[in-house]
Design goal:
Chain A: One of its GO terms (biological process) is anaerobic respiration. Chain A: It comes from Neobacillus vireti LMG 21834. The complex is a heterodimer of chains A (826) and B (193). Chain A is built from 23 helices and 32 strands. With 826 residues, chain A is α/β, with parallel strands linked by helices. Among the domains of chain A are: 225 residues, 3-Layer(aba) Sandwich (Dimethylsulfoxide Reductase, domain 2); 126 residues, Barwin-like endoglucanases (Beta Barrel), CATH 2.40.40.20. In chain A, strands 26-28-27-32-25-31 form a 6-stranded mixed β-sheet. Chain A has a 5-stranded parallel β-sheet with strand order 3-2-1-6-7. In chain A, strands 10-11-12 form a 3-stranded parallel β-sheet, with no helix packed on it. In chain A, 63% of the residues are buried. With 193 residues, chain B is α+β, with helices and mostly antiparallel strands. Chain B has 5 helices and 8 strands; from the N terminus they run αβββααββαββαβ. The radius of gyration of chain B is 23 Å and the shape is elongated. The chains are: A alpha/beta (826), B alpha+beta (193). Chains A and B meet through helix 3, helix 11, helix 14, strand 10 and strand 11 of A and helix 1, strand 1, strand 2, helix 2 and helix 3 of B. Strand 12 of chain A pairs antiparallel with strand 4 of chain B, so a sheet runs across the interface. Bound molecules: iron/sulfur cluster (SF4). Iron/sulfur cluster (SF4) sits at the interface of chains B and A.
Chain lengths: 826, 193
């Protein structure tokens, strides 16, 4: 994920659900585990049974808070305020793990002396707008291009001191002023989390759906690095993701800025493959070439840059995020045709008017679904006349999970396979087969073309039929993803084979990310051996975890400088004198290199090989790069001269800072800079409106309930769940209810600059009036997955939420916007 | 390329039934519930395996099948995470398969129309493929000028694609491959929001 990768080198839940029992303290901030990931809660409770302390930070006293040892309220969107106080507390008391941060983070690296941070703005800010100029967000480099290291952690130039300086004003009192979390609570949370190690942190959309989503999670990364919790059983950062296969779909890069396996998408700033290798580094470029070999087979040659130009190049000037921009562009009539597979944006998009109006500008919309959704039936929206909508909609019936063979990747990176258990109803087929058939038909239409632009389609490898299969054989697809040694035709065993191979001699549709999932030995995604010899919840033979079946990421961090476990009861890997062995598979470091060598001591896969307390812009240089003149396009010698790994930095700063949500009733207590200065300007002035606190004095936040899943496309069609959760509600505090004369069950109207919805009130103690900066702040909470299709209906709160988004990920700020609430219907 | 016809869909269905017959052979438990006075609902059912299709915890599910019907979805005892337990959503999954509300045939809503009408798979795929070619050819950008240099970009501007975190890995992989080969660069899904 966009926040963990700059800190550690790649981004995903670092440990696993079954590992949580090993924690001595668990901080849940931005995830209502009991409600939204109920069986993950099993392992939180197991930890608690074994003596761990559970801390829950949330605007509401939710179901998870109910069983917490410490519950602390927080104003939506302000987490960096209290997390900053934890960082200051660690510094003030020197509670950081000195050996760990010296060895495994960039704490000692000297920062460019021109780097600065003033009143909420980093050096390189352009008041005329546009991105930060990042040339001061760098290290002081030696002649070899490597960062200079300070002699001591007290050197004012070093990263650690920059970090200390950045958070020096985040006192417990300041944290209270920002977040509304009482001073003694901030202190208790800080003490409890810092003094019990290992500790783990759980988050989900409660952390990402903010205009400072990435920086909030960077706070988690910084805290866990300082405390030496990364790579430990019972430590790490456990991102509990949303949909059943969102980890998998992220790995498969259903995103604008990456290719499957997390290699950067080519852009128009990188006209040739040589340019691409130079920009992304040799490590990732080798993976991209393996992907091109999987996609274009023998047609991918050094002469045609392995088909580099068959893949569209995104515009380097445009935002890498695409979700909100797609709906903006729809309203600007930029598209004639759209595909929407298994997604319901007509409920899940903020500022829903963008969707209603936008989709009706299409000629043809293709939707693949299990049930009829609001998206497929956008032309049935109660406020429109279908006659006025000229869009043709084709709705394709899809098979559901039990009706098709395939794999899904859970949040903990476990790639789990399953067979087809029942036939799909009627003519429904798997989404994969639909895509397969459409591409086949498109290939037929282009069959006689000699236009070079159509080579991307005609040369594409697309053969997934096997004898005995009607429809496609998903295992053939999995094999392509896993990859082959092209000389022997054998399936690859590990991703490191791609790193070692000559580019063009190996293939892998995921650049090696899942390599090992299916080998000559068999399909590991189907393994059902649940044994756990270490009793640490590793289950090494249960299905397969990427990368390389490693269950705890960065686990080389769990040992001391002699390569022995720092915590004997939580031993993951260790050096036995000749190689690394253990209960888990060693991550990142070289298996046969001792703990005192550079290759054997590497914990993280960032450009520096260190955990990034400060996310500098950096390129790891090639050792002993020769002076060479390269042939244009692609020259294999590029791999001798290009940097190995490059770190492009984070859009909104190398370290976090507290900014207010885009709509907020509070003046930023920290700086003159009110909100994230890197916000992408919104395109549709008549739809994407912004409101003022004087008209919209309350804070609106949204979430999910156990029984209604996400947009409700499935669960609102499931009678037994609808019996449990038949309608939507708006949670309001007893104070506000009294003030407005509202009782539970009364309809209330929630309005923002973007419109109004009517929902029944639920007056509750679970939300308390917060004191912020001397003012009373009321928070309104509304579950979001409602619409007008399915068996139960309700107005969707996303009609009024804000489409302003995090500048790195494009994730909109669903979790905090300004609203008003009045008694009675709309 | 085999044309999708009603006949091939019948075969498709037959293949899935074969899969469920396979599952039957692999049944984990043999019961003699039939001897009881009140046989269990699951008596005589084939057992297969599934993964919960809701949240990302990835609970294992024991799936019991009789004919085309899913008769029970219970937590898979051996799964290391859920150890036989499920939340209400996981428990409800059999309804997702059995529901009368499932989409069973391709449908089309014509421009300005106020209802869904049936369309054959063949016709639907044909319409989609032709429109892809038409829009792609019309809206294709081969090169752009970047600071005076002509850069090959091969972008299709007129098509966007969304989805999905709700389908299997192999399927999203194919979807990404499909979109990139077409030149689609307005492409994202649930993970971004
Ligand atoms: S059963 Fe519940 S907790 Fe388990 S994966 Fe399904 S939704 Fe998640």
């Amino acid at each position: 994920m966009a926040s963990l990768a700059p800190s550690f080198g790649s981004g995903a839940m670092t440990n696993s659900f079954t590992d949580m029992k090993n924690a001595n303290v668990i901080l849940i901030g931005g995830n209502n585990t009991a409600e939204c990931h109920p069986l993950a809660m099993r392992w939180v409770l197991e930890a608690q049974k074994r003596g761990a302390k559970l801390i829950v930070v949330d605007p509401r006293f939710n179901r998870t808070a109910k069983v917490a040892d410490i519950y602390a309220p927080v104003r939506p969107g302000t987490d960096i305020g209290y997390l900053g106080a934890i960082v200051k507390y660690i510094f003030d008391n020197k509670f950081y793990d000195e050996e760990y941060i010296k060895a495994h983070t960039n704490a000692l690296y000297k920062v460019n002396p021109t780097f600065a941070f003033n009143d909420g703005l980093f050096s390189g800010y352009n008041p005329q707008g546009g991105p930060y100029k990042k040339d001061s967000w760098t290290y002081q480099l030696g002649l070899d291009g490597l960062p200079l290291k300070a002699d001591a952690l007290t050197d004012p130039d070093c990263v650690l001191m920059k970090l200390k300086e950045q958070f020096k004003d985040y006192t417990f009192e300041k944290a209270y002023e920002i977040t509304g979390m009482p001073v003694d609570k901030v202190k208790l949370v800080a003490e409890t989390f810092v003094k019990n190690r290992p500790g783990t942190i759980l988050y989900a959309l409660g952390m990402t759906q903010k205009s400072v989503g990435v920086q909030g999670i960077r706070m988690y990364a910084i805290i866990q690095l300082l405390l030496g919790n990364m790579g430990m059983a019972g430590g790490g950062i456990n991102a509990n993701r949303g949909e059943p296969n969102v980890q998998g779909s992220t790995d498969m890069a259903a995103l604008a800025h990456i290719l499957p396996g997390y290699m950067p998408m080519p852009s128009d700033a990188l006209p040739t493959l040589n340019d691409y290798v130079k920009a992304v580094g040799t490590a990732k470029a080798k993976k991209t070439i393996a992907l091109l070999k999987a996609w274009y087979g023998d047609k991918a040659t050094p002469e045609n840059e392995f088909g580099y130009h068959h893949i569209p190049k995104r515009s380097a000037k445009e935002s890498a995020a695409k979700y909100v921009p797609i709906f903006e562009k729809l309203n600007q009539k930029a598209f004639e045709m759209g595909f929407i597979f298994a997604q319901n944006p007509a409920v899940s998009t903020p500022n829903l008017d963008m969707v209603w109006r936008g989709l009706s500008n299409l000629d043809l919309l293709v939707v693949a679904e299990i049930f009829e959704t609001e998206t497929a039936s956008f032309w049935q929206h109660p406020d429109v006349n279908p006659k006025d909508i000229q869009t043709e909609v084709i709705l394709l019936p899809a098979a559901m999970a039990f009706e098709k063979a395939g794999t899904m990747t859970n949040s903990a990176r476990w790639v789990q396979g399953k067979p087809a258990a029942v036939p799909a109803p009627g003519e429904a087929i798997p989404d994969g087969d639909m895509i397969y058939e459409i591409m086949n038909r498109v290939k037929e239409l282009y069959a006689n073309s000699s236009d070079p632009k159509d080579k991307a389609i005609l040369d594409l490898t697309w053969h997934y039929e096997a004898p005995g299969h009607e429809g496609i054989d998903m295992e053939m697809v999995l094999k392509e993803m896993n990859g082959y040694d092209l000389a022997t035709g054998k399936l690859l065993d590990t991703g490191s084979q791609i790193a070692k191979a000559e580019p063009g001699t190996v293939s892998s549709g995921l650049g090696g990310l899942y390599t090992g999932v299916i080998t000559e030995e068999g399909n590991h995604s189907l393994r059902h051996d649940n044994s756990d010899p270490s009793s640490l919840g590793i289950h090494p033979k249960w299905t397969f975890a990427w990368p390389n079946n490693t269950r705890v990421l960065w686990n080389r961090g769990s040992v001391d400088k002699n390569g022995q476990p720092r915590d004997k009861d939580r031993a993951l890997v260790w050096w036995n004198g000749t190689s690394w062995v253990g209960n888990d598979i060693l991550d990142v470091a070289a298996k046969d290199k001792g703990p005192d060598t550079p290759e054997g001591s590497k914990v993280f896969s960032t450009g520096e090989g260190k955990g990034a307390l400060f996310r500098a812009v950096y390129k790891q240089p090639q050792k002993d790069a020769p002076e060479l003149t390269l042939n244009p396009g692609y020259d294999p010698n590029i791999f001798k001269v290009a940097p190995v790994i490059t770190e492009p930095g984070i859009a909104d700063g190398p370290m976090p800072a507290h900014y207010e949500p885009i709509e907020s009733p509070v003046q930023n207590p920290m700086f003159k800079q009110q909100s994230n200065p890197m916000m992408r300007p919104l395109e549709l002035q008549e739809i994407q409106k912004s409101g003022d606190a004087k008209d919209f004095p309350y804070v609106l936040t949204t979430y999910m309930v156990t029984e209604q899943f996400l947009s409700g496309g499935v669960t609102r069609n499931t009678p037994q769940l609808n019996e449990l959760m038949p309608s939507n509600f708006a949670e309001i505090s007893t104070t506000l209810a009294k003030k407005l004369g509202v009782k539970s069950g009364d309809p209330v109207t929630i309005s923002t600059a973007r419109g109004k919805v009517t929902i029944d009130a639920m007056v509750t103690e679970r939300i308390q009036t917060l004191k912020v900066d001397g003012k009373d702040i009321e928070v309104i909470g509304v579950p979001w997955g409602w619409g007008y299709k399915g068996l139960v209906h309700g107005e969707s709160i996303n009609k009024v939420t804000n489409s302003a988004a995090d500048p790195n990920t494009g994730t909109p700020e669903y979790k905090a916007c300004s609203c008003n609430l009045t008694k009675g219907g709309n | 390329m085999p044309k999708l016809s009603r006949r091939s869909f019948m075969k498709f269905t037959a293949a899935s039934v074969a899969a469920s017959a396979l599952a039957q052979k692999r049944a984990y438990a043999k019961t003699d519930d039939n001897n009881k006075a009140f046989p269990l609902m699951t008596a005589g059912a084939a057992t297969s395996y599934g993964i919960c299709h809701f949240c990302s915890v990835g609970c294992g599910i024991e799936v019991k099948v009789k004919g085309n019907e899913l008769i029970s979805t219970e937590g898979f005892i051996d799964h290391p995470i859920n150890q036989g337990a499920l939340c209400p959503k996981g428990r409800s999954l059999k309804e997702m398969h059995n529901s009368e509300l499932r989409l069973t045939h391709p449908l089309v809503r014509k421009p300005g129309g106020n209802k869904w009408e049936p369309i054959s798979w063949d016709e639907a795929i044909d319409k989609i493929a032709k429109k892809v070619k038409d829009v792609r050819d019309k809206s294709f950008t081969k090169t752009v000028d970047v600071n005076g240099n002509t850069v090959t970009v091969n972008r299709t501007e007129g098509i966007f694609s969304l989805g999905s975190a709700e389908i299997d890995n192999e399927e999203v992989y194919l979807y990404t491959k499909f979109n990139r080969a077409l030149g689609v660069h307005h492409y994202t899904h649930q993970a971004e929001v």
